Amino acid sequence: MKINVGISILSLFCLFVNVRAIRFNLQPNTQKCLRDELNANMLVVGEYEVTAAPGQIVDYEVRDTKQHILSKKDDISRGKFSFTSEIFDVYELCFISKVPNNVRGVVQEVAINIKKGVETKSYEGIAEAAKLKPLELELKKLEDLSDAIVQDFALMRKREEEMRDTNESTNNRVLFFSIFGMCCLLGLATWQVLYLRRFFIAKKLIE
């Protein structure tokens, strides 16, 4: 009974590493992009399929926020792609429809399956090489998933610390700027009072 419960729990956790299938319609002469935030040195692989349309061409490209292209292919129909993230950033996968002026465009359907990180590992090959039993393989998947989650939390904590440091630095700068502004206003007010006093004395309005 305990073994069955353990297998059920493992199966539940392993649902998180399933392939994510996405389908969407691509209008003629438009582009649609899928965006995701990726850690540095993360492998991403995927498969795509685009419905055929006479005279129409669909390209795809993967780029980061600085518009660096990591992967690109023109006139696609069905195939695979892969790339490795260079730094922590938001990456986007764009499908671009191109239709000549003399062709009446039609909507095309794009289907894509994406894996990233631990999802890209071939556990069947690992099981054969290490001669792992089914339960041991599930434990291996769970271990890799746990490591990935720990790394994500560590990265989130690091980013939180960086954001906190940035906020504290910004608060200090705002404080110093406010003090500087107050000093400037006090100096200007003092100069104005002294100037007016000399002016009124010169006009013999006050002694």
Task: Give a description of the structure.
The protein is an alpha+beta fold and 207 residues long. It has a domain at 19-120: Sandwich (Jelly Rolls), CATH 2.60.120.680. It has helices at residues 2-14, 123-130, 134-202, and strands spanning 20-26, 31-38, 43-50, 57-63, 69-73, 78-84, 89-98, 108-116. The protein has a four-stranded antiparallel sheet with strand order 1-8-3-6, with no helix packed on it. Helix 1 crosses helix 3. The longest helix is centred in the C-terminal third of the chain and has 69 residues, at 134-202. The radius of gyration is 31 Å and the shape is elongated.
Q: How would you concisely characterize the structure shown here?
A:
With 207 residues, the protein is of the alpha+beta class.
How is this fold's topology laid out?
Blueprint: H1 2-14, E1 20-26, E2 31-38, E3 43-50, E4 57-63, E5 69-73, E6 78-84, E7 89-98, E8 108-116, H2 123-130, H3 134-202
Antiparallel strand pairs: 1-8, 2-7, 3-6, 3-8, 4-5, 4-7
Helix pairs in contact: 1-3
Count of alpha and pi helical runs: 3
Structural class: alpha+beta
Helix coverage percent of residues? Answer: 40-55%
CA distance, first residue to last residue = 103 Å
Shape: elongated
- Rounded to an integer in angstroms, the radius of gyration calculated over CA atoms is 31 Å
Summed over residues and divided by their number, the pLDDT gives a mean of: 83
In the predicted model, the low-confidence regions spanning at least 5 consecutive residues are: 1-19
CATH fold node name of the domain at 19-120:
Jelly Rolls
Under CATH, the homologous superfamily of the domain at 19-120 reads GOLD domain
Tell me the number of strands: 8
Strand sequence of the main sheet, in spatial order? 1-8-3-6
Per DSSP, what share of the residues sits in E-state strands of 2 or more residues?
A: 25-35%
